[in-house]
Amino acid sequence: MADHQEASVTLPSDPASVSAARRYVAGVLADWGLPPDAEAADTVRLIVSELATNAVQHTLGMSPTFTVDLVLDRDERLRVGVTDGHPRFPKRLPAAVQQDNGRGLVIVRWLTAECGGRLSVRPTREGGKTIEAELPWKVPAVQPDP
Length: 146
Known about the structure:
By secondary structure, the chain is α+β, with helices and mostly antiparallel strands.
């Protein structure tokens, strides 16, 4: 595998785009050697799902699209970012047990930390923001058939 690989897709800020983002990421991860049934693949799909949902729901029409970026460095680190055009950074809210929403970023932060990664938010030059999870990249060794 190459030392550095990148993949990106830009989708409309529409609820249907969340599942399209998950499918795209699943395909890229499989191309990069991560089996679709691996726990890490499930984790990355969930992270993308939560970040894409936030990009659709919380941009208040100020971002007609969002972009999902994947960057794999030296077979050691995977960065998964979702960029939207809304300038407001997410705020950490107390998530009450009875709440129906508002826990997406809490889930992403927990999943990222559980994997030994980190979560960051940074502004873009265009005035939006990117929320990025950086995770260790551990592709399971392929076992030869007996």
